[in-house]
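Person: Show me a sequence?

Helper:
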Amino acid sequence: MTKKTLSCLLAVFACGATAQAQFTEFTATLTPEQDGGGARTGTGLFTLSLSGTTVTISGEYSGLSGNANAGHIHGPSGLFPETAGVLYNFATLGLATFSGPSGTVSGTFELVPKGTGGAYTVEQQIVDLNNGRWYVNIHSLPNFGGGEIRGQLTAVPEPGAMALGALGMGLGLMLWRRRSD
């Protein structure tokens, strides 16, 4: 096997490893623009950790135009303006009590099958979460009962996966340069 072939294989392997990774950490920055803009106000920041089928979520929001009355994880969907149904209700799960224009969400829950007959399986939920198809939404009254701020949950690559990809690409580049000389 030539050095050039080896370097290409290493680079492909490293890139493939990062592309196929199952992520465990996610963040969502909630803004009014992601929920339609206009007279909406407020911001929020959420983190979500996934360990097997256990979800730990922590977040805070503030500056809403009214009093928060609900908060959820919705999915699966694309980016705004695409919407999706509620998957996990923070109040029902005991993760938040909604009352004023600011607050927190914090706690742990288990992923469970959703939909008729459990058609939206836990496995598919994990795939959709990894692909950025879930979002956090905070609703408020009197004006934005359908949602005031929203943010897509996006994966935070693990440092090890990023390092593996960079190592593979660096080795490939180094070997390619030697071959070119």
